[in-house]
Amino acid sequence: MSSLQARAATAEERRRWDELVAANPAGGDFVLAEAFAETKAAVGWTPRHLVFARGTEIVSVALVLERRIPTVGTYWYLPHGPAVTTPMETHEHAEALAAFANAGAPRVFAITIEPPVENAPAYREALETGPYSLSGMDARWREGLQGNTSTAIVNIDRDDDALMTSFHKKCRNMIRRAERDGVRIVDMPATPETFAHMHRLMRLVGGGNKQDLNLRSEEYAERFWRGFSARGQGSFAAIEVDGTPAVMAYSIRIGDRAFYKDGGSERPRVTPGMSNLMQWHLMRQARDAGAKTYDMLGVPPRDQLDDPAHPNHSLAPFKLSFAREVTEYIGAYDLVLRPAAFRRWQRYGLPVAQRLHRRRYHDLGLF
Questions:
Q1: Contact 80, 146 (CB under 8 A)
Q2: Nearby residues of 297 by Cβ (< 8 Å), 6 or more positions away
Q3: C or N terminus of the chain, fewer CB within 10 Å?
Q4: What is the pLDDT of residues 297-323, one digit of tens each?
Q5: pTM score
Q6: How confident is the model over 112-142, as pLDDT tens digits?
């Protein structure tokens, strides 16, 4: 068997990029999609499209976000990449990635990889000290950068009865109550008016306490929504009260995986079960379009579920009433290619880049 090699995507591969993302070993993921790359390009990142191949066979693809840091060098970040699920695959991809960077991008001083590998003790040991250790690449573990490093994933690859039965009893009752009350869900177009309603409702999440809200800038969010909606990958849904949305959600499907990306509600105008019915609707819609899983994007890790200080604490009971268990990924690793430059990055490069990013783009953060 030939060794795994990393290379830049061809023009033809770029044209069908999202199709290749959907075929990844870990399944489709919106943070590898072309719409996400365009969103990041507008806030200072340079997207690179990489293919990992064994001979003529494509094994996986990855989105690389590149940032040039003055006096330090070039930094690469692979959101949820390489898109593999085992330590063996992670090690093989990391070696190919480092070799590609050393050969063709000598100013790259570090690469942050974030593989969607389960956070199991045996897997962590295999990557740190075991047979697939990344230590030979001077890898340093760090917390995951994406918001669903610990998350709630629902298996929606089943019929309505089996899916409903998988939910918590109270959740089922809330869905049925909303159905009895005649609550209706409507699709909404990706228009400025829809965006304005979504911004308003998102600001009300958790009682509208601003310091508890981690919201991207409106410009960032709208560019994100437009990009996925234009490609038929994302859509808005709403429950209206007196002609105005009281509950809204934005969901995305990439291949056989769906994601509940954004949502919000206005508590004084919401009746019991509305939000539950919304999720029930989105899950069945995604399943009927070909999705097998539905990621509700972010709950605390298992050992922090009862910690009110965790930013996702208030949303966890609702999400876990559908998923019933927490899914945790292993986090991220910095592959250090230029140790001296990496030290400068940690000491002042990253803090300065964060400050400049927030000031220029009015954005939540660099990543």
A1: yes
A2: 147, 148, 151, 259, 260, 261
A3: N
A4: 989 999 999 999 998 988 899 999 999
A5: 0.96
A6: 999 999 999 999 999 999 999 999 999 999 9
